[in-house]
Design a protein that fits this description.
The protein is mostly helical. It has a domain at 50-86. 33% of the residues lie in helices and 4% in strands. It has a two-stranded antiparallel ribbon with strand order 1-2. The radius of gyration is 31 Å and the shape is flat. The termini are far apart.
Length: 108
């Protein structure tokens, strides 16, 4: 090993000490000042504002349930998916090792 703690010809060998002081510590975020989702933050903040003694999110939920009660399938689906989770899309797969039969139909 040389002065910097790395083996000759193997700078990325396990245990080298190059850059040890600048490496992320366990549990530390790699990008703490990274891009945030500003729209989600604004919508969340806006939804908690009060309008006539009710929060906007309460008003929206009330309208959503009104639509569902009138038979709006998209509103019903939205509510059910939020309560129960989305339905799994299941596909049946059949793996048969039987030979494929080809039928020849002759026309006279």
């Amino acid at each position: 090993m040389n002065k910097q703690g790395q083996s000759r010809g193997k700078p990325f060998q396990k245990g080298n000490s190059i850059g040890k002081e600048t490496r992320w510590k366990k549990g530390q975020s790699g990008n703490p000042n990274g891009r945030r989702n500003a729209y989600s933050d604004l919508i969340r903040e806006f939804s908690f504002q009060k309008v006539n003694d009710k929060e906007r999110r309460e008003i929206i939920l009330h309208k959503l349930f009104q639509l569902a009660e009138r038979g709006d399938l998209r509103a019903i689906q939205f509510i059910v998916e939020r309560m129960e989770g989305k339905a799994l899309d299941r596909q049946e797969r059949v793996n048969k090792s039987e030979p494929i039969q080809v039928m020849v139909i002759q026309e006279d």
